[in-house]
Amino acid sequence: MSSTIVLTGGTGYLGSRLAERLLEITDHRLVLLARDPQRARQFIDAWGADGQKRVDVVPTDLRDGTIEGVARDSVTHVVHSAALIFFNVEKLDAQAVNVDGTRAVTEFARRCPNLQRYLAFSSLYSAGTRTGRILEQPHPPESAFANHYEWSKARSEQEVLDGASGLPLTIVRPGTVIADGPDGRVTQYNAFHNTLKLFFYGLLSLMPGDAATPMYLTTADFTATAAAHLLLSPRGEGIYHLGPDPDETQTLGELIDQAFDVFESDPAFRRRRLLRPEFCDVETFRHLVDASRSLGTSPMSQALQSVAPFAEQMFKRKHFDTTRLHAAWPEHPGTDSPSLTHAVIDRLVASRWGRNQEGTSWT
Amino acid sequence: MSHFMSDTGSEDGLAQAHLHGLAHALGHRKSHLAESETAGLLESSAVDLLSSGFAWHYRCEDDQSAYDLALAAVRALPEGSLADGADAIIYSTCLPGNGNIGTAETWRSSRDVRHLMEFPASHLQAELELDRAVVIGLTQQGCTGFLGSLRLASSLLASEPEWERVLCVTADRFPPGSVYEQSFNLISDGAAACVVARSPGTFRILGTHHITNGGMAAATGEESIGSYFSYTQLLVRETLRRTGLTMADIDWIVPQNTNAAAWKILSRMLGIDENQVHMPSLPESAHAISSDHAINLSDLTASGRLRKGQRVMLLVAGHGLNWQSTVLEVTA
Ligand SMILES: NC(=O)c1ccc[n+]([C@@H]2O[C@H](COP(=O)([O-])OP(=O)(O)OC[C@H]3O[C@@H](n4cnc5c(N)ncnc54)[C@H](OP(=O)(O)O)[C@@H]3O)[C@@H](O)[C@H]2O)c1
Hints:
In chain A, 40% of the residues lie in helices and 18% in strands. By secondary structure, chain A is of the alpha/beta class. In chain A, strand 4, helix 4 (91-110) and strand 5 (117-121) form a beta-alpha-beta unit.
């Protein structure tokens, strides 16, 4: 009997890349649990003959609480990447999709008799506002969080750890994905890109945070490759941090300086003589976000609201340990953070934040 | 004492300039911003502007000109301010069009550009019989024009040994049909006047500073706000450096009337108490273009809270983009 990998979030940024990679490196069948089967079909078409032959779609909305229509006996791997990933997600939505949805997927995995591995996507920020060294281990229960997204990812991890105890389990905690790969191409925009955009267009001159805070930035290629490796490797069980090693990170201050160095190579930017932002405390930044509400629905106000829920993290110095990842994936390629961020910022400036690319999302 | 002062007390001349008398005049038509919203005079919603601290504003009646406001402001100066005449009139306007009394219609019908240079400062000189005064117009400093005139007046007193006093006037009204909002600020038509003189007055001018960033000459409201915090901090830092002072030496900040939250933010960034920021006229008279400082500083003086020796920093940002500051020391 051929192996089947069931994947949630296969129409997502990371899930679709992981699916493509699994098609490449295995001959397993893939079942995408997708709430929009038509959208899923578009991805499958893009994956060519392999996609047509080896991928099925089962319409599934995680908010329904159950997963039906999959022959469980054939399932050898379950990958759960679906989630609402906006930092400003409402708590009830985060609960419904990220927490209750994870419970449903975990329940499904538990009832697959031939399961070889259940891999769930968490996030580095499931650690909440803790500081210091953070190990590839379950988080202590009493964490605090900067936003409902983080809270829901921590709760979702707990759902997996509780519901899948005794199962062959992998939890991956990716860093903030800022590019598709090391060449800096961006197809998913998030608070990182949004903040730089505000600086570039002169709409923001305050930076909440501590210049010394390390930034855990990574790529979709790295994350998908690592997840695929851990999913299929017999040594891949456990919790893993998917991002740069602490000594590979850039600090927030270095990142801002680098961004402005790149910005200043653009003649239009240089002409406007925008100053580098001043670092401010979180309370000051909250005043700015509150004040921006009186600017109505202006782009500045909208962008600030989307960045705000993440601001507190810019003060929280964390050192995400990657010892387990290195042990399970010795050929791990490492991250050249300055070169990655330089490539990303270069492209953002040149493409004016992808103004000409259709269908980019703003998270 | 700041190292700004040399032994002669006039390292760059500004130390000898004093501010005498401050007066202002506002448009005659007072309205609540809810009424102005109904009349289509706003871009933002009245609710948003209310949440920024604005409430009322003053507009000119149809027959009231910027020049009328200027005249009213000068006439409101303390009695005798100009008894000995003036050596110069610096007349600043935010809108260059307010630097001309003639109308575009008269120019169009006559095709004579004379109607585009009927200078209000000359009219003011004649009207007030300030025969000795030469006139100077400042029309490209946006809302910072009034502080620009203090800077220029101080420099002129330093470079013209025979001069005793300079009348500084600023006056603006928005043309009929305008939106009464700029960069999310509710606007009032207004004028202000003061005398900068060599003889001691209420305040001594300790120093001034001015930054222009022409790269942002066409900045939108959002861009102006975006750069407001970093440039205001740069302005303050450079002003302190130039005057040899530290933030701890500054007892009061008098800014232009702007979103109340802006100074919640800036006072934290500059490390001063919010109560040291004096902007009480915001709900009553909105952003009266270049006249806010005259209004707020008069209020601070009248409040009885100023003490001899205290230092007041006036700060303003305006189109161009321009940022200007003046540091005053209470002497009277
Ligand atoms: N991207 C990052 O920077 C990052 C960083 C750390 C961790 N992560 C984690 O990585 C995982 C994947 O992230 P991503 O960037 O790929 O996110 P994404 O691009 O937003 O994709 C989310 C996926 O979840 C699906 N989904 C959302 N609500 C659903 C529902 N009610 N029922 C079924 N499917 C639903 C979406 O389906 P539709 O296509 O129908 O919307 C989509 O396929 C998430 O668990 C996220 O928390 C991401």
